[in-house]
Amino acid sequence: MLLIDCGNSAIKCRLIQSDKVVDQVFPVHQYRDLTDFTNYLKTISIDKIYLASVSDEEITQKIKQTVLQNLHSVAISITSLAELGGLKNGYDDYKQLGVDRWLTLLAADELSAGDCFIIDAGTAIKIEILSKKRGYLGGAILPGFRTARQRFMRLFPHIDFDDPALQRIAEPGKSTLECLYIPDLPVSIESVMDIVKSWQLLLQQPYQLFLTGQDANQISQQIKVDHVVIPDLLFKGMLKQIHLQG
User: Fold this and answer.
1) Which SS3 state, helix, strand or coil, does residue 111 take?
2) pTM value?
3) Which residues, at least 6 apart from 46, have a Cβ–Cβ distance to it below 8 Å?
4) CB-CB neighbours of 125 under 10 Å
5) In a shared domain, residues 15 and 114
6) pLDDT for 59-70, tens place per residue?
7) Which CATH number is 197's domain given?
8) Which residues partner with 14 through β-bridges?
9) 185 and 64, same structural domain?
10) How far, CA to CA in Å, does 214 sit from each of 35, 101, 121, 151, 197?
């Protein structure tokens, strides 16, 4: 089985064969150069391929074509669902919740004994809040620590960034517009944790905090709140969805 997670900056692959797990990461270049990813596919033989992509349609289709040409199999798309395994999506329009966010929620729901926060720190920083009793309560999307404002805005081409709703972060958002937030100052670990602190009363104590994404360790080293770093949280969510959907 090959799991492919295509984000805004990289293609992450997890190859699972005979209980052996091997991970590979390939940059998504500005000019859509997938040479390294293509060469990797030529070295493996697998017929079950699953793809979760939040990249634009052009790069997503190019990945699917590359998989078909080199592995002669169709990559099955993993998408956000309205409900799965007792977890309700919670977004106003469940299809608009990024599949990366949905999969980390699925994984966290299984791993957590109680309520929890998820911070996925990458090109964009996603903060999710999940209640065992009430389900997904919403979240926030901020620029990553090294992501320029203009690059962040290009990730959401259909959003009007002049909308005043972008400056409302008092409560978790349940649509992409409500979740997006660009503070006046550069995003810092302190500003991320300020959001967590302001929302913690929505959860039953004690809650768990899961960190994932490329900058998870950076956050882990600087916060004093109890937490768990799970680098492969999204892949765990993918496996759960594949298993539950049969």
Assistant:
1) helix
2) 0.94
3) 1, 2, 15, 17, 71, 73
4) 25
5) no
6) 999 999 999 999
7) 3.30.420.40
8) 3, 23
9) no
10) 22, 15, 6, 17, 22
